[in-house]
Design goal:
By secondary structure, this protein is mainly beta. The protein has a single domain (28-169), classed as Porin. It is built from 1 helix and 8 strands; from the N terminus they run αββββββββ. It has one helix at residues 2-23; strands at residues 32-43, 46-58, 66-74, 79-90, 98-110, 121-132, 137-147, 158-169. The protein has an 8-stranded antiparallel barrel with strand order 1-2-3-4-5-6-7-8. A hairpin with a 4-residue loop joins strand 6 and strand 7 (137-147). The longest helix is centred in the first third of the chain and has 22 residues, at 2-23. The chain starts with a helix and ends with a strand. The relative contact order is 0.19.
Length: 170
């Protein structure tokens, strides 16, 4: 009975946000910001190689989260692609241009000659800190972790530290 009451309370609370999300009409289906990044690939504090990545964050916002699509490739041919959510907040300083963000995206990992993560389904979660310019450019440093969340016994995980450059498009 408690779960039905909790579900009803969540639905009532979410109704205004759902209506606002449905009314949202972006200028283009691709409006948002695209970020290119590159950095080092790590496992257990050992450098495995490098990775290049492209992420697109959509302007649409649902409960403060922005949908995203993400693709990366390593220097050993490992490929990861997925889709998820991103949330961002301004840091409490006078400029208002500093931000902190967090993301979560399940995706598919194709190993090729790269490190074995134990399973094709891998979850990528990360944080970043950066600066937004008045002209729409974004510069940040990110740290993220990828693992299969123990879906399989083999779950070594992998991290990346990257420098990111992005641009907001209307």
């Amino acid at each position: 009975m408690l779960s039905k009451k909790l579900l009803a309370a969540l639905l009532i609370t979410a109704m205004p946000s759902l209506a606002a999300a449905q009314d949202y009409q972006p200028k283009s289906p691709f409006s948002g910001w695209t970020v290119f990044s590159a950095g080092v690939l790590l496992h257990a504090d050992k450098v495995l190689g490098s990775e290049a990545r492209i992420t697109h964050y959509f302007d649409a916002e649902y409960f403060h989260f922005h949908p995203l699509v993400d693709f990366s490739v390593t220097d050993q041919g490992g490929v990861w692609f997925g889709a998820g959510v991103y949330i961002e907040g301004e840091m409490p300083v006078n400029t208002g241009n500093l931000f902190v963000g967090a993301s979560f995206a399940p995706g598919v990992y194709i190993r090729n000659n790269e490190f074995d993560l134990g399973y094709p389904l891998e979850f990528r979660s990360g944080i970043e800190v950066g600066y937004k310019t008045e002209s729409g450019y974004r510069f940040s440093i990110s740290y993220d972790h990828r693992s299969n969340a123990r879906i399989r016994k083999i779950n070594p995980g992998m991290e990346t530290i990257q420098f990111r450059i992005g641009k907001h498009f209307n």
